Amino acid sequence: MSFLTGAIRTAAAGTSVRASMLGRYSAPVALRQVRGYASHHEDESFEAFTSRYTSFFDAVDDLFELQRGLNNCFSYDLVPAPEVVEAALRASRRVNDYSTAVRVFEGIKEKVENQGQYEKYLDALKPIREELGINLKEELYSA
């Protein structure tokens, strides 16, 4: 009889401990989905964007900064102006990275809507390509 009484007391004690633990932690509240926007930032005009990235690429002096700047520049929902691309091409030649200069044109080709726009960029950037000796991927790997 004493064995049975001890077992009941132990079971009851365990249950009350679990109940008190559950009482400490409330059920999780339904999570709200809240999207925070950076409303304190002003909209940047295309001219300000062009000015900012042109000055950025003019000041670049190592490959990491150049690639970081290109990644940031091409991540926007717009195609950079030819002035920005020219500054990026000069920076890539300044840090002696020819492959990045070629890839800038690949980035432009992916960003524009159609082949006609890409041709206009190539025409606008032809003098800088000739000055710096930059070939396109199509010219390097023509079959």
UniProtKB/TrEMBL annotation:
GO CC, any one term = respiratory chain complex IV
Biological process terms from the Gene Ontology for this record are:
mitochondrial electron transport, cytochrome c to oxygen
InterPro entries assigned:
Cyt_c_oxidase_su5A/6, Cyt_c_oxidase_su5A/6_sf
UniProt cross-references to SUPFAM superfamilies, sorted A to Z: Cytochrome c oxidase subunit E (SSF48479)
Q: Where is this protein chiefly located?
A: mitochondrion
Where in or outside the cell is it found?
Answer: Mitochondrion inner membrane
A GO term for molecular function: metal ion binding
Q: Which UniProt keywords apply?
A: Heme, Iron, Membrane, Metal-binding, Mitochondrion, Mitochondrion inner membrane, Transit peptide
Keyword Metal-binding among record annotations: yes
Q: Which Pfam families match?
A: COX5A
Subunit:
Component of the cytochrome c oxidase (complex IV, CIV), a multisubunit enzyme composed of a catalytic core of 3 subunits and several supernumerary subunits.
What is the stated purpose of this protein? Component of the cytochrome c oxidase, the last enzyme in the mitochondrial electron transport chain which drives oxidative phosphorylation. The respiratory chain contains 3 multisubunit complexes succinate dehydrogenase (complex II, CII), ubiquinol-cytochrome c oxidoreductase (cytochrome b-c1 complex, complex III, CIII) and cytochrome c oxidase (complex IV, CIV), that cooperate to transfer electrons derived from NADH and succinate to molecular oxygen, creating an electrochemical gradient over the inner membrane that drives transmembrane transport and the ATP synthase.
Family of the protein in this entry: Belongs to the cytochrome c oxidase subunit 5A family.
* Protein name, per record: Cytochrome c oxidase subunit 6, mitochondrial
Origin species: Meira miltonrushii
